[in-house]
Amino acid sequence: MYEGAVQELIDELGRLPGVGPKSAQRLAFHILEADPQDMKRLVEAITTVKERVKFCTVCGNVTEQELCNICRDPRRDPSIICVVEESKDVLAVERTRSFRGRYHVLGGAINPIAGVGPEQLRIRELLTRLNDGAIQEIIIATDPNLEGEATATYLARMLKSIGITVTRLASGLPVGGDLEYADEVTLGRAFEGRRNALS
Amino acid sequence: MYEGAVQELIDELGRLPGVGPKSAQRLAFHILEADPQDMKRLVEAITTVKERVKFCTVCGNVTEQELCNICRDPRRDPSIICVVEESKDVLAVERTRSFRGRYHVLGGAINPIAGVGPEQLRIRELLTRLNDGAIQEIIIATDPNLEGEATATYLARMLKSIGITVTRLASGLPVGGDLEYADEVTLGRAFEGRRNALS
Fold it and tell me: What SMART domains would the database entry show (chains A, B)?
């Protein structure tokens, strides 16, 4: 055990996700020896985020204002909503530059073991957005894992009754990948989702 | 890119050692969603460490006072000094409970590529400590790698002329290890350092 303040810092750092005891110690000693100005900037960055960053009241994405910059942007197509699990996923989709609609961040995926049911997600807010009739398509872009698939199925069934086009991101071989190393589920999906080679 | 504050936090976190862009993003979102009280504690821990923690004026170990708790402890044998590279190493030696002397933290190891020569280490402070004649043995416990070995050799040669017993930690097979998997240098050292099996 180190003396008071150092050990306390190691403990606090060790509570962060993906930071084990050894990393916490290394980070603590880095902080200890780092330039005080750099550490002041780090502390301010944490404080600012906690004080200023909120979640967009419409889509749930992170923002420093009432609405996020995508919901504020009049050039974004309001008739298509891409439903994702986390704010991080918004950025991932944005990087593709192939989606010009709006988003809806659920805040997670259905995961009964972790106690996350549909009520814990921002599904009610999604239904509210559908009320004005402007939305024509919902693209479900949850993670292609157990929880994401369960959430997608739940949403698809629920939205079917409303009569809106509901689509799901294609599953298949990753571009640049190797067919030989694809797992059987992915390869199976690639077969199911095969497309006309001439189109 | 995220909006201002979030991206700034990701950038600051990404500057920490061992934190890549993905980890920085994950940490930033954890901080964003975490309990404000927890984050306040983290910020306070960083601030406190930067404000309060100093280096012991005698041995260079981390401390919140003028002298570290080992240098302050009258039960520690003042005639033996264990020379280590970092404060972390003090803790590692302390955990063995087999050393009851004092320490001297060099603050690194000789590494010409990184621009660290003997002048950048706390070697002058070590020589000052030897002046009072109370010290009878110096145990060099630098890391068993290239830089640590170079530092050990440098110190051993320098201290030889002063006429103090200078020892180096034994190299050999790690306890609980497997002879078959030991690298040839370690195994070679284990042969060189072999001891009478009956002693």
Answer: TOPRIM
State the Cα–Cα distance between residues A12 and B91, nearest whole angstrom: 19
Distance CA(A95)–CA(A77), nearest Å, equals: 17
What's the full length of chain B, in residues?
Answer: 199
Q: Which domains does chain A have, with CATH numbers?
A: 4-52 (1.10.8.420), 57-168 (3.40.1360.10)
Beta strands in A3-155 (DSSP E): 54-55, 62-63, 77-84, 101-105, 137-140
Q: Is there a contact between B46 and A29 if contact means CB atoms under 8 Å apart?
A: no
Distance (Å) from the alpha carbon of A10 to chain B's nearest alpha carbon: 9
pLDDT tens by residue, B161-197: 888 899 998 888 888 878 888 888 888 888 888 887 7
**Of the candidates B198, B100, B186, B90, the residue with the CA atom closest to the CA atom of residue B142:** B90
**How many distinct helices (H) and strands (E) make up chain A?**
8, 6
Q: Is B104 helix (H, G, I), strand (E, B) or coil?
A: strand
Give contacts of A53 with chain B, Cβ < 8 Å.
3, 5-6, 32
CA–CA separation, A182 and B27 (whole Å): 30
Confidence of residue A71 (pLDDT cuts 50, 70, 90): very high
A63 touching B (Cβ < 8 Å): yes
Nearest beta carbon to residue B69 from set A3, A19, A86: A3
SS3 B128: helix
Contacts of A55 (CB under 8 A, 6+ apart): A61, A62, A63, A105
Task: Copy the structure tokens of residue B79.
Answer: 């005639």
> Which pTM was predicted?
0.76
Nearest one of A76, A72, A74, A116 to A93, comparing CA atoms: A76
- A16/B30 CB distance under 8 A: yes
Q: How far apart are CA B10 and CA A88, in angstroms?
A: 12
Structure tokens at B17: 């050692």
A151, A147, A195: which is closest to A171 by C-alpha? A195
A8 CB within 8 Å of a chain B CB: yes
* ipTM attached to this prediction: 0.77
Region for A81 from its dihedrals, namely left if φ exceeds 0, alpha if ψ lies in -120 to 50, beta otherwise: beta
